Backbone:
């Protein structure tokens, strides 16, 4: 004779209504209430509309301090409010659910509330320390989310959240946890430089990253370190790294030059000048050792000392060349010359097109005249090719007022970067002291010349000021 087993209280997968489970919530026996809560948690995604009518009962169960399954009731209430679109209440009850709210689950409910919790945490962390009121339960959820990222190997996500929440401790932990520390450091550096808007916090992050780059167990990325030090305005640190590299092997010297070119791309003239001035000083000719006169029996030793001095001098000259080249890069002289050479050799502007434009417009039409002059300036920008201007001086002289200003200023666009010849090129058009040198140019011409001189020496104006 078969013995009947206990009746299962778990609802069938094809449950058409949750009315029976909802009625069990009002039973007096704790076991029945607990079973109903667990069963409703499994079917809440399909029967939340029915359960929402009894949300007050579920809330009362959580508020009952003597009820053993308060956290389970809070989790069910959170899911109900989530489906109702009340995310604030859903997050509040998720915090009350404690460990019952499993951040490792990958359903929409967990993902949505995690995003809401992080946003709330970030909002609180953005406030001044005296105004922060962060719920300890919220911190617990964020901590568990970080641990989930570490366990799943989602290091980039952990780094992003750590930067958003201003958790430098978690940033370091995420980088150390990564299987590729160098790649994690590079990613953190990139994100910090491009997405962190707070200057003070960015400096704190960069300081931490530089310290981690310089630690013994991390492969040093000198380029990223120098970029970080540049944002920290640490010219001494950059100069020390460049000096160490440029005094090393050939590969190290090439890396130093590459770093210098990368720093020049940021065009921070003051910082680059400080770095160049703090590089290893060059020896002056007067610094070579002198040999004092001695007795006749010391002549042979004197000759040997002279040979040693010559060898040291040659060695010093060899060391000075990389330093001088590095200074040339940091000053912008070498990059500008390379840029000019490239633009000149790749110039493909059509002078015939400009001539046809000039012939098609009336010389007295200032708008068309200015348009032609500006077209020439843009077509030949940085190429130093001013053939069109030299061949049409008479036509250019017909310009008046602001057209003259544009025509003269256009020369600065064409000759941008010609640092050594800028004043010579614009000399005839610049204001003259005391009226010397014949008739004074038009004020518009003088203003355009000064503007052109500024364009020629843009970002490299220490030699013209």
Residues:
């Amino acid at each position: 004779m078969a013995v009947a087993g206990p009746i299962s209280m778990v609802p069938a997968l094809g449950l058409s209504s949750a009315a029976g489970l909802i009625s069990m919530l009002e039973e007096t026996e704790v076991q029945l209430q607990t079973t109903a809560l667990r069963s409703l948690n499994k079917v809440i995604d399909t029967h939340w509309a029915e359960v929402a009518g009894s949300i007050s009962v579920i809330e009362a169960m959580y508020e009952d301090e003597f009820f053993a399954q308060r956290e389970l009731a809070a989790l069910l209430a959170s899911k109900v409010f989530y489906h109702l679109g009340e995310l604030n209440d859903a997050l509040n009850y998720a915090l009350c659910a404690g460990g019952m709210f499993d951040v490792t689950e990958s359903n929409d409910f967990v993902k949505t509330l995690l995003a809401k919790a992080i946003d709330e945490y970030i909002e609180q962390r953005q406030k001044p320390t005296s105004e922060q009121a962060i719920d300890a339960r919220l911190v617990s959820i964020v901590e568990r989310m970080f641990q989930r990222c570490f366990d799943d190997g989602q290091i980039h996500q952990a780094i992003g959240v750590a930067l958003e929440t201003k958790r430098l401790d978690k940033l370091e932990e995420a980088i150390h946890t990564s299987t590729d520390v160098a790649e994690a450091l590079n990613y953190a550096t990139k994100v910090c430089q491009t997405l962190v808007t707070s200057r003070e916090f960015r400096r704190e992050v960069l300081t931490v990253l530089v310290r981690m780059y310089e630690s013994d167990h991390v492969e040093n990325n000198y380029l990223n370190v120098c970029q970080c030090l540049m944002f920290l305005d640490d010219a001494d640190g950059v100069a020390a790294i460049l000096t160490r590299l440029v005094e090393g092997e050939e590969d190290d010297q090439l890396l130093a030059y590459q770093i210098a070119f990368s720093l020049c791309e940021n065009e921070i003239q003051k910082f680059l000048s400080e770095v160049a001035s703090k590089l290893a000083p060059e020896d002056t000719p007067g610094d070579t050792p002198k040999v004092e006169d001695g007795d006749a029996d010391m002549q042979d030793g004197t000759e040997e000392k002279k040979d040693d001095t010559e060898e040291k001098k040659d060695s010093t000259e060899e060391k000075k060349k990389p330093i001088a080249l590095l200074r040339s890069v940091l000053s912008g002289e070498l990059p500008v010359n390379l840029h000019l050479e490239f633009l000149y050799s790749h110039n493909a502007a059509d002078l015939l097109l400009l001539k046809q434009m000039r012939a098609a417009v009336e010389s007295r039409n200032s708008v068309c005249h200015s348009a032609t002059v500006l077209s020439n300036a843009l077509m030949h920008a940085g190429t130093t090719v001013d053939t069109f201007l030299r061949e049409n001086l008479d036509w250019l002289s017909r310009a008046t007022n602001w057209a003259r200003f544009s025509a003269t200023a256009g020369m600065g666009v064409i000759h941008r970067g010609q640092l050594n010849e800028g004043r010579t090129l614009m000399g005839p058009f610049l204001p003259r002291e005391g009226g010397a040198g014949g008739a004074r140019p038009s004020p518009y011409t003088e203003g355009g010349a000064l503007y052109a001189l500024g364009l020629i020496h843009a970002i490299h104006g220490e030699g013209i000021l």
The mean pLDDT is 82. The longest helix spans residues 299-331. The two ends are 109 Å apart (CA to CA).
